[in-house]
Every structure is written in structure tokens, then in C-alpha cells.
Design brief:
Helices cover 8% and strands 44% of the residues. It has 1 helix and 17 strands. Residues 4-20 and 168-214 have low confidence and may be disordered. The strands form 2 sheets. It has a 9-stranded antiparallel sheet with strand order 16-13-12-9-8-5-2-3-17, with no helix packed on it. An 8-stranded antiparallel sheet has the order 4-1-6-7-10-11-14-15, with no helix packed on it. The protein has one domain (26-185). With 214 residues, it is mainly beta.
Length: 214
């Protein structure tokens, strides 16, 4: 009888522990550094204007990011780093664990994965899938993407993919790229002063993000 009670208690504890497990964080990019003005349009149409001086701004999947002025760097949990300058815009999505960045503006944006750098022009979309072994697959979903690694630049045509390290290593500073491996398959913001890097009508900068609807 005592054994039965012990078994039931242990089973109940295991079940409660599984229910209490922390949910998997939703895919997001973190705005790690920026100057000037940035506009983030969420999937529901809400527009966020990021105030200079704000930190740790999270950009969810489905968002459209436009750099109004200055430059910005955003980082994903999978090691993907997106760099963009004034006039650039891109969309960020996550599909089945793959981070997808699509250049939607007239300029070029840079996507860095470990020691590999990919350059995206208008209409280009890159997919990055990071593995548990420290490796990552880079795939050209649309367009042709220039990929630079170890001082050599190759071009991935639509549908082609290559492998690289997902994080920068001090012991292996070069990543291998195999371009032959083929797989199947805004509104104006008025609460900024980009010259002084301060928020107009908000000198104290207590509001990190301002929301508006289109």
C-alpha cells in the first residue's frame, strides 16, 4: 500500500513539473545598437517608433523594420546578426526553426552568421537554420545572395545553400562555404531628433517605445 502511495505521489509530481516547465521563447531579434530613427511595423499593423537611448527592444517574427536614419544592429538567439543603414528595410520571420530575413528596401543589408557574411539586395531572402552542433545552414530562398567567408565571396542562387559556423570561434576563425550544395525545393515619425539623438516632446526619454496605428 505504501509503495502504491509513493508511486502515485511521484507520478503527480512529475506531471506537475512538466506543466510548470517554461514555454519556449518566441523567435525574436533584439535591437542591440542603433542611431537615428527606426520604425517597426508589427504583423498586426501596429507601428512602433524606437526612441534613441532605448535598450533591449525585442522585434517579433512577422515584423517589418525600416531604418529612417542612422544605422542599426539586431541579433537573434540563433546567432544571426542583421546590420542595416538609413533607407534600408527588411522583414523578419521564423518558419519551422528557420530565421528568414528579406530585404524590402532599395539598399543592401548585411546578415552575419558566425564568420560568414551575406549581403542582401532588394528582393533577396535568406534563411538561416542553426544546429545544435554549432553549424548553420544558409539558404537563398529568393534572389541571388553574395556570401563572404574566409576572404572568399561566392554567390548562392535561389534554392542553393551552404554551411557555416553559427558562432564565431577563436580556434576556427574560418568557415567553409559550399555554394554547389543545392537543396530542393511608412508613416512619418515626429518624436525624434536624429541630429541630437534625443526624443522631441519627451526630454526625459521615459518612453522607450511609442505605438501608433496606421
Amino acid at each position: 500500500m505504501n509503495r502504491l502511495i509513493t508511486f502515485v505521489a511521484a507520478l503527480a509530481f512529475t506531471a506537475s513539473a512538466s506543466f510548470a516547465a517554461a514555454p519556449t521563447p518566441a523567435p525574436a531579434l533584439t535591437l542591440t545598437s542603433f542611431t537615428g530613427q527606426i520604425q517597426i511595423k508589427l504583423a498586426d499593423g501596429t507601428i512602433q517608433g524606437v526612441v534613441p537611448g532605448a535598450s533591449a527592444i525585442s522585434i517579433p517574427a512577422g515584423a517589418q523594420v525600416t531604418i529612417i536614419s542612422g544605422e542599426a544592429v539586431m541579433t537573434g538567439a540563433d546567432g544571426v546578426v542583421v546590420s542595416a543603414n538609413a533607407g534600408d528595410s527588411f522583414s523578419f520571420n521564423s518558419v519551422n526553426g528557420q530565421t528568414q530575413i528579406a530585404a524590402t528596401g532599395t539598399g543592401e543589408i548585411t546578415v552575419t552568421i558566425g564568420t560568414t557574411e551575406a549581403t542582401l539586395g532588394a528582393g533577396d531572402t535568406i534563411g538561416v537554420t542553426a544546429g545544435a552542433d554549432g553549424k548553420a545552414e544558409i539558404k537563398a530562398i529568393t534572389g541571388e545572395i553574395a556570401v563572404t567567408s574566409g576572404g572568399q565571396t561566392t554567390t548562392l542562387a535561389q534554392g542553393q545553400s551552404s554551411s557555416t559556423t553559427s558562432t564565431t570561434s577563436t580556434t576556427d576563425s574560418t568557415a567553409t562555404t559550399d555554394s554547389g550544395e543545392t537543396t530542393e525545393g511608412g508613416d512619418n515619425l515626429t518624436n525624434y531628433n536624429s541630429d541630437t539623438n534625443t526624443a522631441v516632446n519627451n526630454p526625459a526619454q521615459t518612453q522607450a517605445v511609442s505605438n501608433s496605428t496606421p
